[in-house]
Amino acid sequence: MLSRLCQRALAPLALRSLAPSLSAGTLQVSRQFHTGQQCLAPITPLPEMGGKVRHGVIPEEFFEFLYPKTGVTGPYMFGTGLLLYLVSKEIYIITHELVSGIAIVSLIIYVVKKYGPTVAAFADKLNEDYFAHALACKNSAISSLEEAIESEKKEQSRVEGRKYLFEAKRNNVAMVLETNYRERLLTVYNEVKKRLDYQVALHHLKRRKEQDHMINWIEKSVLQSITPQQEKESIAKCISNLKVLSKNTQAAV
Amino acid sequence: MVSAVRRLLDVKLQELPPWLAAWDYSPKGLLRAVHQAWRCYHNKYINMKKGGVAGISMVLAGGCVLGYICSYERLKHSRWRKYH
């Protein structure tokens, strides 16, 4: 339980202890790195449970070593005998520190037994979050790369359509050119027509002006040529004609 | 060196001295042995998903025993009896 928290603290320690014994800080340029064959096998995952230990301090291998000859109680008898030997020969001296040691050890055992599972669950959750995050990163990377592959394949399949694409583009360009050409043709036609209309209107104007001027001139000359006597004669003739006409109309009615 | 240690149970009693002499006692060899022992201990009791208190408690117990051995000379004076 505690070791799970310590595992995260001991990991850099383990890394440091695994570092090669080079002189710290100086990198010799003559050394070649990565010269051996690269081993591409996947790293073995951490095992679920490790070596079994009984009572927290004695590995299980000791009990199994003694089991064939002495059965189940053998190691405990061995332990008791050893303890009695150490105490009686005063290789282990009983002092006041023994009492404090017993108190501390019992306190530690109580704490471990009571709060072990909760701390274990907490550390497990931390580990799980860490691994889930790493797994999520890996999965997202894989999925994004797969999407990239898919889009690349789609792009590659679009290469066949490139002929049609360029055909359509060429048609568009030709259409635009044609439209432009016709617009300009229309402009030219309109301009030319305007100029011709101008010329025609000019001609008409000139004719009309000449006609008017001629009429005025003729009238003026005629009026000038009429002498006063001719005028009286013509008026008398008109009056007599009118009388005749009136008589005719009266007769008709 | 580890293969020599593993074969401790296979070594007969009379072969013990030559087997002990066959170890690598140079500083580099000793360092390598210590390093390997540390790594084996880690891989067996610490590097796992569901570890327990056993991983560090064994180290602490070993430290206690070593500390007791180192301070035995001082503790010899507070023995209860003179003759055992």
What does this molecule look like?
The complex is a heterodimer of chains A (253) and B (84). By secondary structure, chain A is mainly α. Chain A contains six helices and two strands. In chain B, 61% of the residues lie in helices and 0% in strands. Chain B is extended and about 45 Å long. Chain B starts with a helix and ends in a 9-residue tail after the last helix. The model of chain B has no long low-confidence stretch (mean pLDDT 83). Chains A and B meet through helix 1 and helix 4 of A and helix 3 and helix 4 of B. Chain B: InterPro entries: F1F0-ATPsyn_F_prd.
Q: What is the gist of this entry?
A:
The complex is a heterodimer of chains A (253) and B (84). Chain A has 253 residues and is mainly α.
How does the SSE layout of this entry go?
The complex is a heterodimer of chains A (253) and B (84).
Chain A lengths: L1 H17 L34 E2 L3 E2 H11 L3 H15 L7 H63 L3 H64 L2 H25 L1
Antiparallel strand pairs in A: 1-2
Chain B lengths: L1 H5 L9 H6 L5 H19 L8 H17 L1 H4 L9
Which residues of chain B form runs of ≥5 with pLDDT under 50?
A: none
Strand order of the largest sheet of chain A: 1-2
Share of helix among residues of chain B?
A: 55-70%
Number of strands of chain B: 0
Rg calculated over all Cα atoms of chain B:
18 Å
Order of helices and strands of chain A: HEEHHHHH
Element pattern of chain B in H and E? HHHHH
**Regarding quaternary structure, how should these chains be classified?**
heterodimer
For the residues shown, what is the average pLDDT of chain A?
86
> Distance between the terminal alpha carbons of chain A, to the nearest Å?
148 Å
**How many helices of chain A?**
6
* Category by helix and strand content of chain B: mainly alpha
Structural shape of chain A: rod-shaped
Helix content of chain A: over 70%
Give the percentage of residues in beta strands of chain B: under 5%
Largest interface: A-B, 33 and 29 residues
Structural class by helix and strand composition of chain A: mainly alpha
Kindly provide the radius of gyration of chain A, computed on alpha-carbon positions and rounded to a whole number of angstroms. 63 Å
Total helical segments of chain B: 5
